[in-house]
Amino acid sequence: MLFNTVLTITTFLIMEFISWFTHKYIMHGPLWNLHLDHHQVDKKKKLQKNDYFFLIFAIPSIMAIILGSMNSNYLLYIGIGIALYGFAYFIVHEIIIHQRIKIFRNSKSRYIRAIKRAHKVHHKNIDKEDGESFGMLLVPLKYFK
Ligand SMILES: [Zn+2]
Ligand SMILES: [Zn+2]
After folding, report:
1. Rg from Cα positions in the chain
2. Cα 20 to ligand 1 centroid, rounded to whole Å
3. Chain centroid offset of residue 18 CA
4. How many angstroms is it from 87 CA to the middle of ligand 2?
5. Which ligand is nearest to the CA of 120?
6. What pLDDT is attached to residue 103?
7. What does the pLDDT look like over 39-82, one tens digit per residue?
8. Do residues 96 and 107 touch, judged by C-beta distance below 8 A?
9. HEC string for the chain
10. Higher pLDDT residue, 1 or 51?
11. Ligand 1 centroid to 37 CA: how many Å?
């Protein structure tokens, strides 16, 4: 039980690194085509091509949950960790930061304000190159000031 919980939490934390890496080197790299409309948002469109990344990350999660349940092994807890990160991504990135659903508008939490500020800085740059601040949940301390 403890091992499973630790595995899920570790997977969640590793996902922050994977998403930072994917964002910096893949989304602002070969798959910029899919990420572009998240930096140059057309307010009339409800969905962005960038939303495909949500599906792309859902695949390993679903696979791990299915395989892990079938063989009752550790893959299940890795799958749950990825799914929880996806859920956090949806709440934090889509709702809290981008307000795609208009709730949690004015958080007073220092942490929430810091991650919002960091992501705003990321979005200041509308181009593929020279971005900064690619993380979601872990951001440099300077944004806490
Ligand atoms: Zn970006
Ligand atoms: Zn964003």
Report:
1. 16
2. 10
3. 9
4. 15
5. 2
6. 86
7. 998 888 899 999 999 999 999 999 999 999 999 999 999 999 99
8. yes
9. CHHHHHHHHHHHHHHHHHHHHHHHHHHCCCCHHHHHHHHCCCCCCCCCHHHHHHHHHHHHHHHHHHHHHHCCCCHHHHHHHHHHHHHHHHHHHHHHHCCCCCCCCCCCCHHHHHHHHHHHHHHHCCCCCCCCCCCCCCCCHHHHC
10. 51
11. 10
Q: Nearest bound ligand to CA 35?
A: 1
Ligand 1 centroid to Cα of residue 74, in Å, is 32
Six token digits for residue 128: 């593929």
pLDDT band at 140 (very low <50, low <70, confident <90, very high): very high
Cα(125) to centroid(ligand 1), Å:
8
Which ligand is closest to the CA of 132, given by its number?
1
pLDDT of residue 44: 86
Structure tokens at 27: 């989304």
Cα of 22 from ligand 1 centre, angstroms: 10
